Amino acid sequence: MDRKELELYLVTxxxxxxxxxxxxxxxxxxxxxxxMVQLREKNCSSMEFYREAVRLKxxxxxxxxxxxxNDRLDIALACDADxxxxxxxxxxxxxxxxxxxxNKIVGLSVENREDVEVANRLDVDYIGISPVFSxxxxxxxxxxxxxxxxxxxxxxxxxxxxxxxxxxxxNAAEIIRAGADGIAxxxxxxxxxxxQQAAAELKKIIDSEVKKSGRS
Length: 216
Prior knowledge:
The protein is built from nine helices and eight strands. By secondary structure, the protein is α/β, with parallel strands linked by helices. Strands 1-2-3-4-5-6-7-8 form an eight-stranded parallel beta barrel, surrounded by seven helices. β4, α4 and β5 (105-110) form a beta-alpha-beta unit. The model has no long low-confidence stretch (mean pLDDT 94).
């Protein structure tokens, strides 16, 4: 995968969409500059999850934006998603890679130095540094890593990385300066009055910092 696909990574949460459909918010966000979308569903049936994944896959294909499914390998396979994102308590990476195939994207959440050292021995496509800051959109997270944690992890990791957790326009630049290739956001776009404008603002910040860093 291209590192640039991680620059502005939207993680969905229907409960934060202000009554709008997921497709409406996601399409607006993509028009604003989102480079990857992760479908995360914790409170729906497998059938509902599958149908939503199929709808998003069809929508994002028109924009050539990768669809990543959170946790659920079965849903990712069923809808032919571009990849899956797993956490430390999900299916083991070798199992996921074996079933998903070598041409799909597999992302892995890391919460500390030990997780990164293990990830370095795996051919994951990227790591999600979680959580950078405190967040209310996911309650089962490890203690916040802060910018120092991002710096330590990105220096140690051999993989592209994206920071997630409490990130918005006011601190997005700091994540890139700390070494991450991109930021993953939930409420900063899902709950925005204008998701397209919110995404465009974040993408502008990221592009500026990436250019300054010489990584563009």
